[in-house]
Design a protein that fits this description.
Residues 466-478 have a biased composition (Gly residues). By secondary structure, the chain is mainly α. The chain is 53% helix and 5% strand. The protein folds into 2 domains: 38-321, no CATH class; 329-427, no CATH class.
């Protein structure tokens, strides 16, 4: 995980660099907010806020299932403390974890008719493309009303990466080899299927806590079996979402050839090459299932099993402690927003403590990025065409070609810095899309005030019929005893909406 205090608002941060827009609008948001406060603290605040929202969403789903205290605690634990969260944080996918935590809140708000809450959660989940896409699916599927508005909000929140992807369809394709490199992997004693059912199975073995490799993953399979006991109290739409998530991850594992064809043919399908991410769609269902567990001892058992899945999570996450990263501020000032080419510099660097992180210059300035990625000796992503052309031009000291490529600064492998007459690139469309994304909460507030984002007020029902009402007139005068009995009759309670009724709204 690499978050600089003051990242650059470069074309790459806006999705218009020479690589696919995989970190949009996340990088642009951090760059803008980093001008007011350290972006690293902004990221911390977002993570904490999303964790609180995830806990609230889980409790909301448990309350809908009429779960008691233990069931509610189990639902909250299942959402916050699971292998997906820990492994993705260790991988550096903090914005994806934010999206995963927000899915239960989106589902609970949608099922409860609080569309404006779901819209705000969908907006924040869209910090990352995968999060925005899954939030859109969850929001539309669970919306009881205003479904078209929900779809519109979700699509607008995804525009910062959709439009750059359409503008450069070739960069949105992935290689078939990437599917095998990012395939789900088996963890100790449970195999690949058991790992996925327990919300684990990330492709990178270095991002897996030690406990998952020595048998504690069995607790995840046991937890899955226990959660199935609450299936009668789980909204059917959440079960469908969970089936899509788990089923999609399993299908990608069993049918890699089909996924390889998709990512190499369909622009944007590369979002799913890391197919283990699909299991996050099951989080709302897991929370609702845990919230519906009866009796208390069963809910307590689910809570314990959830903790046992990753008992060493606090120790594993100590790797995320902040460290100082060196960036040459004089170079950043000299570049002044121009594109910088580093000659023969790797995309990943190793810190003094052995941790491997993304090159900080990729965030500190506008960098001509290679994008090449090798996993287990296999070239998964080839270098970008612009980077290759710039490297070749510098090898021939062809400054005219470098200028035509828009390269303003070259940093040679010996540290020598050379400038060209190329000017800084601007991405006005990227700025406009980022501004639109930042204004979504204002739009949600307007819709809320216009009555589009929540329940309409229900007309109160009378507690009973008065003795002179229609029935009294039809039947003539009523005795005091009869009238008293009619007045004492409780009001008819509104019909409980479950199953098909709730799903059809």
């Amino acid at each position: 995980m690499l978050v600089l205090d003051h990242p650059a608002l470069s074309p790459s941060a806006l999705g218009f660099g020479n690589l696919a827009a995989r970190n949009v609008p996340q990088d642009g948001v951090l760059a803008v907010l980093g001008t007011f406060a350290p972006a690293s603290w902004v990221a911390r605040g977002l993570i904490v806020a999303a964790a609180a929202a995830g806990a609230g969403g889980a409790a909301w789903l448990a309350r809908r299932a009429r779960g008691g205290g233990w069931a509610t605690a189990a639902a909250m634990t299942v959402v916050l403390w699971n292998p997906f969260v820990v492994e993705r944080l260790l991988q550096g996918h903090w914005s994806l974890v934010i999206a995963a935590w927000l899915l239960p809140l989106i589902a609970a708000a949608g099922l409860s008719g609080r569309a404006w809450v779901a819209w705000l959660a969908m907006w924040l989940a869209a910090l990352t493309p995968t999060g925005g896409l899954f939030a859109l699916f969850t929001g539309v599927a669970t919306a009881r009303r205003h479904r078209w508005w929900t779809a519109g909000v979700g699509v607008v929140a995804c525009l910062p990466w959709i439009i750059p992807g359409l503008a450069s369809a070739s960069s949105a394709l992935s290689t078939p080899e990437s599917v095998a490199a990012f395939a789900p992997r088996a963890e100790g004693l449970v195999g690949t299927l058991g790992s996925l059912l327990g919300l684990g199975g990330i492709w990178n073995a270095d991002a897996v806590p030690a406990s998952r490799e020595v048998g504690f993953a069995v607790a995840g399979v046991a937890l899955f079996a226990v959660l199935l006991l609450g299936v009668r109290r789980c909204p059917p739409v959440l079960l469908v979402l969970g089936l899509v998530g788990l089923g999609g991850a399993v299908a990608a594992w069993l049918l890699p050839e089909a996924l390889a064809w998709a990512v190499s043919t369909i622009p944007g399908a590369g979002l799913l090459r890391d197919s283990q991410k699909l299991v996050m769609l099951a989080l709302p269902a897991y929370a609702a299932l845990a919230g519906g567990l009866r009796p208390r001892w069963l809910a307590g058992g689910a809570l314990v099993l959830a903790l046992l899945q990753v008992p060493d999570a606090p120790r594993a996450l100590q790797q995320l402690t902040p460290v100082e990263v060196q960036v040459n501020e004089e170079l950043v000032a000299f570049a002044d927003g121009r594109d910088v080419l580093f000659v023969d510099r790797p995309a990943l660097i190793t810190l003094a403590d052995g941790r491997v992180v993304t090159d900080p210059y990729a965030k500190a300035l506008s960098m001509v990025e290679s994008g090449a990625l090798t996993v287990d000796g296999v070239l998964v992503d080839p270098p970008s065409e612009r980077w290759v052309a710039a490297q070749e031009a510098w090898a021939w000291r062809d400054m005219d070609t470098l200028e035509e490529l828009g390269v303003g600064v070259i940093v040679d492998d010996d540290g020598r810095v050379v400038g060209t007459d190329a000017q800084r690139r601007v991405a006005p469309l990227g700025v406009a899309l980022l501004g639109l994304w930042l204004l979504i909460p204002v739009g949600v507030l307007v819709l809320r005030l216009a009555g589009r984002g929540g329940r309409r007020g229900a007309r109160p029902r009378p507690a009973g019929r008065r003795a002179g009402g229609p029935r009294g007139r039809q039947g003539g005068k009523q005795s005091g005893k009869s009238a008293g009995k009619r007045d004492a009759r409780p009001a008819a309670s509104p019909r409980k909406r479950t199953g098909k009724d709730a799903a059809e709204d």
